[in-house]
Amino acid sequence: MSGLAAWLDAHGLPGDGEPVLDPLTGGASNEVYRVSYGERPVVLRRPPAHAAQERAATMLREARVLAALADTDVPHARLVGACEDPDVLGSAFYVMELVDGWSPVSAGRRGPSPFDEDPDARRELGLSVVDGIAALARVDWRAVGLEGFGRPQGFHDRQVPRWTAHLDKVRFREIPGLDDAAAWLSTHRPRAWTPGLLHGDYSFANVMFDRSRPGRLAAVVDWEMSTVGDPLLDLGWLLMRWPSEEGQRPRGSFDMDSMPTVPEVLERYASASGRPVDDIDYYLALAAFKNAAVLEAGYAAWVAGRADNPKMAAFGDMVLDMAALAGEVARHSTLAAA
Fold this sequence. Notes:
Blueprint: H1 2-10, E1 20-23, E2 31-36, E3 42-46, H2 56-68, E4 79-83, H3 86-89, E5 93-97, E6 101-102, H4 119-138, H5 155-168, H6 178-186, E7 196-198, E8 207-210, E9 217-220, E10 227-229, H7 232-239, H8 262-273, H9 280-303, H10 315-332
Antiparallel strand pairs: 1-2, 2-3, 3-5, 4-5, 6-8, 7-10, 8-9
């Protein structure tokens, strides 16, 4: 760890002895550690050892986003620095500030008190989550140095072909709803939209709430799927598991009881982001379609014996739920064809 100690010293985090790395929960595809070295604990994020070289670019992309967000109102862990030299720690990595907050992933299905019982407090959580992506949608991505970070031109033209091809590589069973959704999405692309920064995997699983100000978003985390594209896809991703008047959406890791209604979420997002939400059916169907394709790859690997993460066994039913949602939205939407 002498290399890491020297790197921390050079980045304004001096200490004595060797840094101590304690694993943190969360981060299924990357390793996340609390680093104790000197007076200021920080968080280090790096790819798993078996994929260190392949995921180096992803690490540096995440760090670039955090650096770009420094002077924005998007809640995030501030970047301390990034390292692309594998000689320091065996892989690329970055270090960020430690956020004093609680995560819905590790706080139980209903969260800590008062959120486990107070409907008004739970409603505030929901509104704060919506405000998080609304703030992200307002970021001037060019002004913060993210020119070239993504390919916004043709963003929607690429979505169905890309995720269909991804699915075709692993498809081994019938998945009702996906073909209907793919056909519908291909003819209902948004007529007009404005490129912006999107998280790519926005949900209660990837946010932290402030301990000192209950209900306030402390940080959005896990930026590995972020890009410049259409930010409204983040809203569709969030609504995939949001309860609706028409029926319960596929369940997520956090209990959605007492959350704002879907119309309230749409109104809040539109007001805070300045972006119209008239085409939300498209974004919801696309989010569910994409999520089904991504999860099916993991489930196919599990079925074939190529994966050792037992969580992937549950992906099978999740894929079917998401595909059903995508197909249902496609069949019942009143959105006019583009």
